[in-house]
Specification:
By secondary structure, this protein is α/β, with parallel strands linked by helices. It has 2 domains: about 270 residues, 4-Layer Sandwich (Nitrilase/N-carbamoyl-D-aminoacid amidohydrolase), CATH 3.60.110.10; about 200 residues, Rossmann fold (3-Layer(aba) Sandwich). It contains 19 helices and 20 strands.
Length: about 575
Amino acid sequence: MRTEPLRLAMAQLDTTVGDIDGNAEKIAAAIDSARGQGAQLVVLPELALTGYPPEDLLLKTHFVSAARRALDGLAEAADGIVALVGFPESADDVYNAAAVLADRRVAAVYRKMFLPNYGVFDEHRYFQAGTEPALIELNDIPIGLTICEDIWEPGPPASAEAIAGAQVIVNLSASPYHAGKPSEREEMLVQRARDNLAAVVFCNLVGGQDELVFDGGSVAIDQDGTVVARAPQFQEALVVCEIDLGAVAAARLRDTRHRAAVEHERERRGGSVRTLASASVPPVSADEVGGPVAEPLGPEEEVYTALVTGLRDYVEKNGFERVVLALSGGIDSALAALLAVDALGSDRVVCVTMPSPYSSEGTRADAKAIAENLGAELVEMPIDPLMGAYDEALAEVFAGCDPDITEENLQARARGNLVMALSNKFGWLVLTTGNKSEMSVGYATLYGDMAGGFAVLKDVYKGWVYRLVRWRNERVGRDLVPQSVLDRPPSAELRYEQRDEESLPPYEVLDAILEGYVEGDLDVDQLTRTGLPREDVERVIRLVDLAEYKRRQAPPGIKISTRAFGRDRRLPITNRFGVGRPS
């Protein structure tokens, strides 16, 4: 076992799916910077070369071939340093792989063994699984290789590599974010380090990709489970740190738990885990071990920053100059405006207020105050003339019918037409402002408030909307969103004195039901046993099931929960199983 320090770098990058040349430039710059800071090894995220997830781009042979050409070009940068770069390898099949770049060549390739196929993951559609744990030796230091899901498994490949002598286990990752996941993931990595008596180095992707956000939080953990270096969340970073290999060696001498396992593994496999490559780079000396340790974000700041990151990258990576949103003076559009300004700057956000005869003076004044506080452009377009035009056009066919939800939806659709007209004319991206509580139960209008290009609050429950607005006000030390918006009972203001809770349970009850049903798949009896009113539970579940067809037509939005609508939760539209339906 080696005892000298290992200086390594975690290159936490924000890549763009399909931008192979651009990603390669970022990777080359990271390798160069790591070498300049004396790192012997630089670890990059999973599939960093193509971006993650590339989805059906992986079914295009010319895409996979282009990635290989770029990888061969990158190998030239690996001089005096070893780089671990994620890429799709084309061999007998396609593999999610890590290239070992050393001595200006692709020295070896490790293939991911565990392919996730749950939630947002669909890797069995694209990849063949690797079959062998593997090591590389860097200055005779044995280093185990894993990719993302490989290390979530408590056994091999990480345990096999440790038993074979790996003092450091590295993990190239693209681990999508949901609220609370960074701490859960770090707890798991701490356990892997302790179990394997090895240092664990985890390098994660950062940034937004369609509905997914990657939080970074790359981390190096010693054999005792102590975090010795941590990258910041939601931003690119190159973190250089020293791993104390002497401490790993000493811990293994003191703790003999693995001796029997080593003997068993030798008998079973007839030898050690395969060593893919060996490389030598200039040695280092270090007075101290570890590196910078960024502080984790608090719960509200973490979720808020995830939403800002996802929105910013969606806008930037898709080439939009400005965004436009309907600002009603309500809490949801207020939060959407806050996020937009924080993501893009006030000069790139256009707020449109579209009052009707049902809009109160309070919401009108609050909409103007929010736009002014944020420094965003405000455009006012009353919809009274459009409502009159609709009434006139439909008068004959609607003769004898009482006004109902039809007329309410026409107001939402008039507003949707106006913001889409601004989008078409000026090329602005329309942000919808509906939250997850509303989307769950169908309280959103097709071709109305659902009309747009990106649903920034699609996975944010109503209770979280209030939490995030309060946190943002507290953070800046003044009411960017007036207190009256937080105090006012929620209302769509599509008729006089309308209140959301006239037709829905109180939001704290609604959100509890939705979290149990949408994210936990609990049934009526299970939810009722938690103390929720049975009548409300049955009604809400029925509304959720009936609204599936609407959600299929909703724009993409940022995933922040354990189970978001869209690629994360997939249910049939035509479905007769559930409350009030034959089973």
